Amino acid sequence: MDDARLAEWMKGYIRAWNSNDPEHIGSLFAEDARYYTAPFRPPWMGRDGIVQGWLKRQDEPGQTDFTWEQLVVAEDLAVIVGVTTYHATGKEPETRYSNLWVLRFDGEGRCSEFTEWWMQHP
Question: Taking the alpha carbons of 13, 15, 18, 21 in that order, is the dihedral positive or negative?
Answer without folding.
Answer: negative
